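R.M. (postdoc): so does anyone remember the format we settled on? I'll just put the structure tokens first.
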């Protein structure tokens, strides 16, 4: 709690202009004029995090924050080409014996001498405990992909952990405590084993990790302060502190970056990118990601459960116009969920070029006819849906308005509704809009992991429900053909086997359209030119934060 009430506007413009009084965290106060503060990195984020506990993380902002204080077993280099060890001393492969010949045993050797922020030793038992916490149904985890494929975990000694799988799971190393679409870092057994569930424990706002920075204070709704962990096993961090500010409005973030009140604008939208690249005081970093901007379709909704209606929606959307108007040249039109730079990508899929006449024809085939107001009707009921997006993202807001107009041109009524990101993307247990299926159409982004595995989005068993709350099949799409193709992709460690399986998966998605993929973004990050060592990999921006300096 702040001990002095200061002008809200002044604090919104510059945290450094607001004296921090009565802080018992041990961090030094920052005051003075705008400009680079040597050793202190100031970051602007849009989304307010729900938690700082890695196993409860549900979005990329929380993933970014988690990796400042926690570590995974493996990660990916900045080029996105090679898996690299973090807490593990080597990446398990069939060649080095880390993956057994039958593909059912994965062995990790861990660094010795690693300490938690409270000084307790990190051991293999922490890895086993984190897996158990992920599998505890009482915990509101976002998804259990890969973790639920583990039969048991052995810890023969403090620096060895052995996963025994129920069946072959090709993405295991890049997924379980690696760079998955929802990366999970290791949490401490000695602090958390006593709790029946971890949903509301003090640790979630006062975490203890092994990572390069310690959370000193979290002022909810305002900022998070972190200080360097000089005992970090990968090397003493070059930064002394990080201040992460919650700034929902991108224009405010851009102005703060321009005036050097912040040094890093986390995950700037394409709309913000068009402004940032014109500012001499700002350096823009663009990195490829296994990412799409997409229109999610709730396939269980009346009307949307007809593939002809979904295809009409696809034909109604002028993707190239959306890219041209909204991305400033940072993106390209998408037709599949796999990115073009990924080995699993295929261009040989059904495409839906912008065509109003074809869209109207499909709606007519589905039994719809235009009413006096131009909106299609069937049995007297208008073809009307709610189109949602998270309110903080400028580009999604603009895209939603443009899509609304495009749909109206073919006779589909779409009413726009906005949600804060921490509600829209929350877990099932937290009442998330997407996980609970309380939507019709939704404009949002998806960032996959290093491995092309996408079964968590599209198989029947990943539909979120009370008995399986950790699924992320938001569209409720269920097709035996898809399940079979996904099984082929997951059951072999051989890329030559997996590649045609992913080609089949992309063809099915293009045919059945649970999602209209709009464009492939490159993620923009606006930074102070004084900020050095920033090298985001395709999945996580803070994987090498101990090397950052300013």
């Amino acid at each position: 709690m702040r001990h002095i009430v200061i002008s809200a506007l002044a604090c919104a413009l510059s945290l450094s202009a607001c004296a921090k009084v009565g802080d018992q965290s041990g961090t030094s106060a920052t005051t003075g004029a705008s400009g680079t503060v040597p050793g202190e990195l100031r970051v602007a984020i849009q989304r307010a995090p729900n938690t700082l506990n890695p196993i409860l993380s549900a979005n990329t902002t929380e993933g970014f924050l988690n990796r400042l204080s926690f570590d995974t077993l493996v990660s990916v280099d900045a080029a996105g080409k090679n898996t690299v060890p973090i807490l593990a001393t080597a990446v398990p492969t069939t060649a080095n014996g880390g993956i057994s010949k039958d593909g059912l045993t994965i062995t990790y050797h861990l660094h010795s001498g690693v300490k938690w922020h409270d000084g307790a030793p990190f051991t293999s038992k922490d890895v086993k405990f984190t897996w158990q916490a992920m599998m505890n149904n009482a915990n509101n985890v976002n998804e259990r992909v890969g973790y639920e494929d583990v039969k048991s975990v052995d810890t023969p000694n403090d620096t060895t952990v052995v996963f025994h799988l129920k069946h072959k799971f090709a993405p295991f190393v890049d997924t379980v405590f690696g760079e998955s679409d929802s990366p999970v870092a290791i949490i401490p057994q000695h602090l958390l084993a006593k709790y029946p569930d971890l949903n509301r424990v003090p640790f979630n706002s006062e975490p203890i990790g092994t990572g390069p920075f310690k959370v000193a204070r979290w002022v909810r709704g305002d900022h998070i302060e972190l200080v360097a962990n000089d005992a970090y096993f990968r090397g003493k961090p070059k930064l002394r502190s990080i201040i992460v500010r919650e700034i929902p409005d991108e224009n405010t973030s851009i102005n703060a970056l321009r005036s050097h009140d912040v040094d890093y604008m986390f995950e700037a939208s394409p709309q913000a990118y068009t402004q940032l690249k014109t500012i001499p005081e700002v350096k823009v970093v663009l990195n490829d990601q296994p990412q799409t901007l997409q229109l999610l379709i709730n396939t269980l909704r009346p009307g949307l459960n007809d593939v002809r209606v979904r295809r009409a929606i696809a034909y109604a959307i002028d993707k190239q116009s959306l890219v041209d108007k909204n991305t400033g040249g940072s993106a390209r039109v998408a037709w599949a969920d796999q990115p073009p730079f990924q080995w699993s990508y295929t261009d040989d899929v059904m495409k839906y070029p912008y065509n109003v006449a074809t869209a109207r024809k499909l709606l007519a085939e589905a039994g719809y006819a235009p009413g006096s107001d131009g909106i299609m009707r069937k049995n007297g009921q208008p073809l009307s849906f709610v189109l949602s997006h998270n309110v903080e993202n400028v580009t999604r807001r603009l895209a939603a308005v443009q899509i609304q107009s495009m749909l109206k041109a073919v006779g589909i009524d779409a009413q726009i509704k906005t949600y804060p990101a921490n509600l829209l993307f929350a877990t099932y247990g937290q009442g998330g809009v997407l996980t609970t299926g309380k939507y019709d159409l939704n404009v949002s982004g998806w960032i996959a992991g290093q491995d092309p595995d996408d079964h968590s989005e599209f198989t029947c068993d990943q539909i979120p429900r009370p008995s399986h709350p950790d699924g992320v099949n938001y569209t409720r799409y269920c097709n035996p053909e898809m399940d079979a193709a996904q099984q082929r992709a997951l059951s072999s460690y051989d890329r030559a086997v997996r590649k045609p399986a992913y080609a089949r998966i992309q063809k099915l998605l293009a045919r059945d359209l649970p999602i209209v993929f709009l464009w492939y973004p490159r993620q923009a990050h606006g930074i102070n030119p004084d900020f050095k060592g920033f090298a985001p990999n395709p999945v996580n921006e803070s994987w090498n934060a101990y090397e950052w300096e300013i």
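R.M.: ...and that's the designed sequence above, right after the tokens. Also worth knowing: The two ends are 29 Å apart (CA to CA). DSSP finds 15 helices and 20 strands in the chain.
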